[in-house]
Amino acid sequence: MTENTSPGPGAALAGDASGEPMLRVEAVHHSYGTGAGAVHALRGASFTVRRGELVALKGRSGSGKTTLLHMIGGLDSPRTGRVVVDGTDLSTLGESELLELRRDRIGFVFQSFGLIPILTAAENVGVPLRLRRAEPRAREER
Ligand SMILES: Nc1ncnc2c1ncn2[C@@H]1O[C@H](COP(=O)(O)OP(=O)(O)O)[C@@H](O)[C@H]1O
Ligand SMILES: [Mg+2]
User: Of all protein residues, whose CA lies closest to atom 7 belonging to ligand 1?
Assistant: First the structure.
């Protein structure tokens, strides 16, 4: 990793002294496939999200919402442009660091799958906390 000074898990709400936005999406382009058959899913998406800000992303089916969320969650990387989560440029992270980001910092509720049916809603929410071996008490509180 480069000069990443991003705080550890759980520090996201600890204040905003740096003034760094929670999320910066900068001129993100992404396409699927190549040549004449390429689908340009994102053509220069740019925006920032402040700490604690609630944002809804709207657009018709096929407009690139899921593609953009995959970029922000480190599940896929843009062809060009940058995604910076809490000061960390995701392009500087290796696979295991991206895994930690997804486990500790980014929560995804997928449209059509991802819940474990034998667990309660609260237990499902607690799964990533179990994976990072959070104390049961801290997990319950969260
Ligand atoms: N894995 C893929 N391979 C090829 N084309 C894809 C793939 N995923 C999405 N697309 C295309 O990219 C565009 C954006 O899709 P998507 O990000 O899923 O939009 P939304 O979530 O807004 O419906 C669409 O034209 C879609 O068909
Ligand atoms: Mg979608």
Answer: 32
